[in-house]
Amino acid sequence: MTSNGCPDELAIDCRDLTFHFNPNDTEPVLSGLNIQLARGDCCLLVGANGAGKSTLLRILAGKRLTKTRNCRILGQDVFMNTPGGVVYLGTEWCMNPVVRSDIVVSHFLDSVGGWRHRARRDRLLEILDVDLDWRMHQISDGERRRVQLCMGLMTEWDVLLLDEVTVDLDVLVRADLITFLASEAKERGATILYATHIFDGLGSFPNKIVHIQLGSTPRPTLEWSPGSGDLFSVALGWLREDRELRRKKEAARGRIRGPKGDTRDARTFFDKYDYAH
């Protein structure tokens, strides 16, 4: 049973998920995407920028409405009947003006119930090396990210959705955090879906890897173990494949990234936009 009383269904179950930002768009952001994760799975979500990783995580978190009812967490529809025990942590949090205001970290954590979860909060304060006397408007982006993680992880969760939130952390704090997350999966059967572009030190963390390519899942979920190979090399191979496919698709539509043989008069351009005079 899960901590919220649900039976042992798949923790995450998306089948043939298709999503458009705008109903009038001819090409979907996600198309026929499939991902199934059991309780206790630690899964890395790998894909190029713009592949749809963040969109998928926000759908799973119940932050985007889909037309179809084929995306479930702990057996419940992620939008119509969002289950408890789901935590989503994304990079946009640190841009909120509230979390950049003059608030003492201890008061900030207490405002979201830190005093009720003191044991886990204190453990995370040590792992993330957070000072309760910090003031939110005076600390760095990396330190602010640590506060976000402490706040988001101090209650017990069943499913954790992470979107690039370790990018600001130094290597020591990140390593200790990954160790903590792995222990949560092993000891409590919690499920983690983690989108990242930083693969060093992660070889023993996942037991599954999902590849998102231009909004779809082109291959079955990869079963992974510490002896499966070089995680970085696997991800790099997939990303090269993604880039070639994207370039071919864009070229077929007459779109090319990078230099386009622009013949505009450079002097005219710079004279127009030279704000130094």
Automatic annotation (TrEMBL):
Domain of life of the native organism: Eukaryota
Gene3D superfamilies documented for this protein: P-loop containing nucleotide triphosphate hydrolases
Pfam name, any one: ABC_tran
Protein name: ABC transporter domain-containing protein
Naturally occurring in which organism (per UniProt): Cutaneotrichosporon cavernicola
The ABC transporter domain, residue ranges: 12-239
Keywords associated with the record: ATP-binding, Nucleotide-binding
Organism phylogeny: Eukaryota, Fungi, Dikarya, Basidiomycota, Agaricomycotina
Gene of this entry: CAF16
Gene Ontology MF terms in the entry: ATP binding; ATP hydrolysis activity
